[in-house]
Design goal:
single chain; alpha+beta; DNA polymerase, domain 1; Beta Polymerase, domain 2; 4 domains; five-stranded mixed sheet; three-stranded antiparallel sheet
Amino acid sequence: MNHPENNRKLSLIFHSMADCYSYVGKEEHFRAIAYENAAKMLHNMNEDIAGYATDVKTLDELGGIGESIAEKIIEYLHTGRIKTYEKLKTKVPFELLELMSITGFGPATLRTLHETLHVTNRNELIDAVKKGRLQNIRGFGPAKIENISKALKVGKDEQHRLPLKDAEIIANSILNELKKIPGVHRAEPAGSLRRKKETIGDIDIVITADLKDRGKIIRKFISLPQVEKVLAAGKTKASVIISENQMQVDIRIVHDYEFGAAMLYFTGSKEHNIKLRTIARERGYKINEYGIFDTAGNRITGDTEEDMYRFLGLRYIPPEKRINAGEIEAAKKPDKIL
């Protein structure tokens, strides 16, 4: 389903605002729900919201939009930004909020980690875990720290890696089950499996689905017969340990139009992605698992990997070549073989 661009962008903004208000605390609980409901309504709406934005009253008549949110829709359509959102992002550790939907990374947990350890993003949290700093925090027992470590993929032991062919058999088994779940549009492997590394430490899978189906998909996934232990189960992602070879399997659910960006981000390698982010930043853009954005937060592209490489002035780079070994430099030159 193709969604109007205004609806798409506003849905992403309101979902992000809902996460921000959830982080702020219980006093903003109802506001977080209101913005999440507005995000879902916009995502499921086929008509361009701009057609209803003649005034606040007209928007208010739509289900899921109150007067305050209606005003922000009109503000965005007129200016391309929402001042309240910009201010909100400065009041919370915004980069940490990507972990909000993982069990063990709820609002209270994130506030404790931020206020106690002063971590502001995923990488700083990983560093804190590796240095054992979580062990001194009240309420963070060994089991909780272990689950956090596994969800962040900290301390992967080489002895738990499997040969590529063995990992592919496991991945295909999981993919076959996922594709049977109603609401799953696409399900494809990412990570080191897609890059065809000789040994695989865990399996990453990207799924596309509508918002209304994601909870059901997560529940079905963590209930698969292969699953031995659930490490995390949030709104858009889940991590489990399967009984066969104790392999960790992570799924991430995105919109159809985010599939290319998600596949690029979750395929890696980390070093390759860092190089791409540097190129984007030098041009005044930001690249993440949702697409490429300008400084105002407007999404430029991200439907396909080819679109993203092309926007950055590069030819498409096959997954197995994404190892930061000169492939990006070669992709800048039309006569170079990748």
